Amino acid sequence: MSVLPEPPVDLEDVFPFPGSSYQGPAPQYARLRAECPVARVHTEGGVDAWLLSRYEDVREALADPRLGRADTVKADAPRIGGAMTSTPEMIISMDAPEHSRLRKLAAGPFTARRIEQLRPTVQRIADELLDEMAGRSGPLDLVRQLTLPMPLRVIGEFLGAPMEVLELFAVNARDFVTVDDQEEGGDSRTGLAKLYESMVAVVADKRANPADDLLSALIAARDEGDRLSEQELVTFAFTLIGAGFDTTASQLANSVLALIGRHRDQWRWLAEDPARVPAAVEELLRHVNLFSTDTAGNPRIAREDLEIAGVRIAKGDAVVLSITSANRDAAVFADPDRLDLARAHNPHLSFGHGMHYCIGKQLSRLELEVAIDGLVRRFPDLRPAVPEADLVWHQGEINHSLAALPVTWGS
Questions:
Q1: How many CB atoms lie within 10 A of CB 42?
Q2: Are 233 and 218 in contact (CB under 8 A)?
C-alpha cells in the first residue's frame, strides 16, 4: 500500500480552491487528477481533509457506506472548509437506515413516470412566464422573469405549498445555502431557523386542509403511521422545497448564460432543432459548473479505516468529493473541457451517486428541458444585455448563483 505525495498545488492554496466558476472547476484539479487524485489538503475550516478528484474514485466514494455524512453534523464534528450547514434531521445529513426510511416515504412521487405526468404543469408554468416575457421589450432580468420563479412555482404545486410562503423561502434559502457559516447567529443558521418556522405554519394549515399533494402525503405518514417525527416532517418538507428550486434555478441560469454568451454556435444549433434539447441538458449538467466549491457541499467522515486508490484513509478522517472535477475526467469524457451538446456517452455525476443520488433529478431534468426548449423556440436571438464581466453573482453560497441575468432579443 502506498501513500501519495503532497498535492502538486501551491502551498498557499487552501480548499476550496480559488478559480472555480460556472465555466468549470478550479484549474488545480487538472493536475490533481493526473498526479495526485487522492490528496491531503488544508481546508478553510481549519481541518485537513482528503480530496478526491478522479471520476472513478469519486463515484465509488459516493456509494461507499464507510464514508458517512451523519458524523459531519454532530456537535463535536470537525469544521471542514467548503461545507454547507445542515442538521441531523435533514435527509442530506443521514446515513442508513434513517436515510432509507425517509427516502422511501418520498420516493413514489419522484419516479420517472410520475414526474413525466407533471410535464403539462411544468409546460403551463413555463409558457405563462415566457408569454409575459414575449409581451415585453428587452432588456429584462431572466433570473427574475424565468429561472427563479419557474422552479419555485413548480415545486410549490408539486408539494402543495402556498406561493407567499415559497417567496419567503426564496429569501431565507439564500441565507441557508451559505458555505462555512456555522456559527450561532450566522446568516445560515438564521436562514435555517426561518425556514423551519415558515414550514411549521404550512404543515399546520395542510394538516387541517389536506389535498392531493406530496406534503399532505408526508403529513399522513406522520400522523397515521408515525413513520416521521414532527421535526423530521417539517425539516424534510423545507429541505425538499430548498433543493427543489434553488439548485434548478441556478443551473438553468448558468446554462442559459453559457449558451447565449460563450457558446452561441451551440445555442444556434439547438434553435435549428429543439428536439436536441434533452441530450443538450445532460451535457449542460456535466459541463456548466453548479457548485461554487466544486463539490456539493456535503463532506464525508470515514466510519472505519479504508483505502482509496492505494491511499490509506483513517477512521475519523474527513473526505471531500469533487463532483465537478470528476465530470472533467478525460478517462471518461472525450475532450472533457469542451461543451458538446451532441455528446453521446455522458455518465456525469452532477446528481450524485449511491444512497444520496438526487431524488429530484427527473423533475430538475424536466424543468431544464422545458425552459430551454421554450427559450430557443421563442427567442432564438436571445443574447446577454451586458458584458459577462458586469454580471453580479451571489457570494459565499454553495452554488454559483447569478443575482441577475440581463438579456435582450430582437433588433
A1: 16
A2: yes
Secondary structure in 3-state letters for 193-216: HHHHHHHHHHHHHHHHCCCCCHHH
> Is residue 64 over pLDDT 50?
yes
- What's the rounded Cα separation, in Å, for the pair 401 and 175? 12
Residue 236: predicted pLDDT = 81
**Cα dihedral angle (52, 57, 63, 68), rounded to 10 degrees?**
-30
Distance CA 11, CA 41 (A): 10
Q: List C-alpha distances in Å: 174 to 85, 152, 314, 396, 397.
A: 12, 13, 35, 10, 8
Amino acid identity of 380? P
Which fold does the domain 91-292+334-408 belong to in CATH?
Cytochrome p450 (1.10.630)
C-alpha 306, offset from chain centre: 28
Nearest residue to 69 (alpha-carbon basis) of 84, 57, 54: 84
pTM (2 decimals)? 0.91
Q: Which three cell numbers stand for residue 4?
A: 501519495
Given a cut of 70, is residue 240 above it in pLDDT?
A: yes
CA distances 127 to 75, 99, 377, 397, 400, Å, are 47, 36, 12, 30, 26
Which grid coordinates belong to 385? Answer: 444585455
**Pairwise CA distance, residues 76 & 26, whole Å:** 30
Residues 339-344: contacts with CB within 8 Å, 24+ apart? 339/258, 339/263, 339/266, 339/283, 339/284, 339/287, 339/288, 340/283, 341/266, 341/269, 341/270, 341/276, 341/279, 341/280, 341/283, 341/284, 342/276, 342/279, 342/283, 343/279, 343/282, 343/283, 343/286
pLDDT, position 126: 98
Rounded to whole angstroms, the Cα distance separating 76 from 385 reads 48
How many of the other CB atoms lie within 10 Å of CB of 99?
Answer: 18
In angstroms, rounded to a whole number, what is the distance separating the alpha carbons of residues 48 and 50? 7
Nearest to 57 by CA among 377, 329, 403, 388: 329
Number of residues in the chain: 411
Q: Where do the domains of the chain lie?
A: 91-292+334-408
d(CA 238, CA 314): 35
* Distance from C-alpha of 194 to C-alpha of 150, rounded to nearest angstrom: 23
For 263, phi and psi rounded to 5 degrees? -135, 55
